[in-house]
Input
Amino acid sequence: MVRQRTELPDRDTLAEETVLLFLSQTDTRSSHVRTGIAMQQTWLAAVDAGLVAAVQTQPLQLPEVRSRLAQGLGVEGYPQLLMRVGYAAGPVPQSPRRAVAEILHHGDG
Output
């Protein structure tokens, strides 16, 4: 997914930014998977519309951050991820791609 050398959009990269919060009603593995599916669909729709996006999940791994965020926004549920979406302020480099050989390995025989 994201590697150390992967560049993420910063304030200078995104213009007219919107932050989306993805919530789930429960905090189970299946709700995490459904949130991931919703995130993928949203990200693909954003790219199709000419937008760029960046996802943040790390702060929400702390229970106190998750609960304070939900309380502060007055929403019910479990915050799963934040997605920054906006128009690119300038040219955006293509995401790095892994070589096929890094992903698929042929067995011996």
About this structure: DSSP finds three helices and three strands in the chain. Residues 29-48 form the longest helix (20 residues).
